[in-house]
Amino acid sequence: MSSVTHSVTRIVLATPRAIFRAFLDPEVVVKWRPPAGMTARLDAFDARPGGGYRMVLFYGEPVLPAGKTAADRDVVHARFQEIEPDERIVEAISFESNDPDFAGTMTLTMTLRPVTGGTKVSFVAENVPPGIKLEDHRKGMESSLKNLANLLE
């Protein structure tokens, strides 16, 4: 298994409570979670430890090389491992893909820490599959956090 870790942090001008709710409300998640250039559809969402979701991320235009699942999409399966209200969410994430470079399960830990004027939101992705390049992943996570900030600020 990979030991690659990617992380990003952003200060969001909102309370930990508001941000936490945005992570667990399926109608809100599809608005901020897809990175720039993508849209999302949730096929299932169960916001409890042991629950999870299936999200389809659609590219605005097919990409080269192709997305993880198909030329125009990535299909994500996530299981909530831990949910600590207003503080932390840990997800086990895997992608539907025939490419072994995207195989395996990565752990995504999102933490919320109150700071002056807002909340420090951190994403730490561990055991990142080798097909997910650091620069692309970091850009995607930063884009999602920017979407979250734009939605809540």
Set down the secondary structure blueprint.
Layout (H helix, E strand, L loop, with lengths): L4 E8 L3 H9 L1 H7 L5 E8 L6 E8 L13 E12 L3 E9 L9 E10 L2 E9 L7 H19 L1
Antiparallel strand pairs: 1-7, 2-3, 3-4, 4-5, 5-6, 6-7
Number of helices: 3
The CATH class designation is Alpha Beta
Task: Count the E strands.
Answer: 7
Biggest sheet character: 7 strands, antiparallel
Strand order of the largest sheet: 1-7-6-5-4-3-2
User: Unreliable runs, pLDDT <50, ≥5 residues?
Assistant: none
> What is the CATH superfamily classification?
START domain
The chain-level structural class is: alpha+beta
Query: Measured on Cα atoms, how large is the radius of gyration?
Result: 15 Å
C-alpha geometry: globular
Look at the structure and give the mean pLDDT: 93
Helix content: 10-25%
Strand residue percentage? 35-45%
Distance between the termini: 38 Å
**Can you tell me the CATH topology?**
Alpha-D-Glucose-1,6-Bisphosphate, Chain A, domain 4
Tally the structural domains.
1
Name given to the CATH architecture: 2-Layer Sandwich
Give the ordered list of helices and strands: EHHEEEEEEH
